[in-house]
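Reopening this ticket.

The earlier resolution said the output was attached, but the attachment link was broken on my side. Pasting everything inline this time so it's all in one place.
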Amino acid sequence: MLRHVPPPKIWKVKVYMKLFLFIFGAWLIVYFLWKALTRYTDSIKFEINKYENVNYFLYNHSRQSSFAYNLLPETDYNRLINISFEFSIINFPCENVKLLLLILIHSSPTNFAKRKIIRDTWGKNDEDVKVLFLMGSASSQVVKENLQTENSLHKDIIQGSFQDTYSNLTYKHMMALKYVVYHCPDTKYVLKTDDDVFVNRPLMKNFLINDLSPFGAQKLLMCPVVHKAKPFRTYRSKWRVSFDEYQYNYYPTYCLGWSILYSPDIIFDLYKEGQRSIYFWIDDVYITGIVADKINIINHIDIFALTLTTSEIRSIINFSHEFKPFLFGSADMNGNDILSLWKYVISNPVPDSIRQ
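Inline output:
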């Protein structure tokens, strides 16, 4: 006679299945995090090795600026490529001091809130590092008056006499170079960035001192590098470039303009050539691509591996996952994310070097 075997209890099967799925899911998360961190670390090591085999020179002693001002026209100070120019608002944080780093931030007259967030977080001045906000002129009288009040309080605005418009970005970038050439030639390094970017200020300082040199560098151009980019020709794009503006199918290698680290000698060379070149309105392509190519600056050093992706920023903000070392957040960050990243940075030990 056959014995009746009762079926397994359904609830036990469900429990075991849930337990299996939980363990498997946890394993997948750990695995992919490990892979991501491994790739990130390997990428950093690759970039560091590149830093040690490029065509720039690190100083091992103090130096004086040696710009060949005699190569510039007598009227140069009041010209900006193809227009008359003057500084409408100017400040002089480099007077009687030799900075380690001058940070020049592209801003717009109405971006009061963005400037405040930077001042409250990574943009605080100290004796070695100074921050300036660069902009063109405003059309609104109210904005003009508010800017004067803001500058009286913070003394960190540089304003040019050109209109602050999208098509005038190259004037703004060239004004930044002009300011360094005439008013801050002895700074060791210059960082050009935007007012929606996060800079890991404490690690940046250690990077310059320990990974590069506290005495500065020569022929240094570090940035997120773009190779073989094509101009946008479609009429629907705000980046549209006509063949009259640029006739070639590809841009020269250039830097994305939201994080460019210059040595002052590179700035002088780019400024001198940019002042006598034909104006092109996309500033990073013009200065670090077209002009750089004309004077044979070809050693763009890619720092993309030291820049957080959007997903990495979310992981840090939401889960406090470590993605170190990094020098920059991604472009187009909002104010809350900048505040959150700053809280993360100041609540963790600062590495002495990007090699850690």
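Reporter confirms the inline version is readable. Residues 30-53 have pLDDT under 50 and may be disordered. The domain at 51-305 is CATH 3.90.550 (Spore Coat Polysaccharide Biosynthesis Protein SpsA; Chain A).
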